[in-house]
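Researcher: We're teaching a course module on how sequence relates to structure. For the next exercise, students receive a sequence and then see the predicted structure as tokens, so they can try to spot secondary structure elements on their own. Here is the exercise chain.
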Amino acid sequence: MGKNLNAFAEDELCVTPLAYKGSRKYREAVKNLCQTSEALETMLSAEEKSLFERFCIARDEESRLYQIDVFTRGFRIGVLMLFEVFAGGKNDFMRSKEADE
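Model: And here is the predicted structure for the students to work with:
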């Protein structure tokens, strides 16, 4: 097996960057998220903080599951496009005369 295929089979592929800086918009969104979190921390009671934390966990899980579905569907579309390329050409890569028949 190839190097990447072995890594995939052994669950050693890392698709998330180890150090992600993101775009300017991404950094602004993270900054806004931190500022909002700090503001809420001072405004909410212990019970409200607990409820909000449960909400955030549920929202993150929904988002994670949605992103898995989007990735899976996109990957499948890519594979279908790849199949179409190879299925559409009759021996396009053959040099022999029989390839033209």
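Model: If you want an answer key for the exercise: Residues 67 and 73 are 10 Å apart (CA to CA). The chain has three helices and no strands.
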